[in-house]
Amino acid sequence: MFVQTDPTLMTLLYKIFMGIFVAGGIALVTWPFRKLSAIHAELTAQRENHLTHIEAHGKEQVDLLGKMCASLEGVRLDLKEQTGFIQAMAILPKAAPTRRKR
């Protein structure tokens, strides 16, 4: 009734079955990560666009920041002068004399 098969044929069939089983398992595990290359390409494109934008407008922004710092320096000096004037004009109450213990 039973057909006796060659042991090498059974070994070969077993290895083929296990290879297909392992490959299917790996494909099943890596299925969620199939879009990583598309995400990587999108992030690379965004980074290149950002760097191009920085290169195009960087010099202009540095010049504007320099002008802003120069104008704020004048405001800071004016505020310092105004604060000193107000402090000089302020009437401060005299402190009550303290008694020394003998």
Task: Write up this protein.
- The chain has two domains: 1-34, no CATH class; 36-74.
- The protein is elongated and about 120 Å long.
- The chain has two helices and no strands.
- The N and C termini lie far apart (127 Å).
- It has 102 residues and is mostly helical.
Largest sheet: none
Order of helices and strands: HH
The residue fraction in helices comes out at over 70%
Cα-based radius of gyration, to the nearest Å: 41 Å
| Uncertain regions spanning at least 5 consecutive residues | none
Portion in strands? under 5%
Cα separation of the termini = 127 Å
Q: How many H/I helices?
A: 2
Task: Itemize the secondary structure elements and their pairings.
Blueprint: H1 7-30, H2 36-89
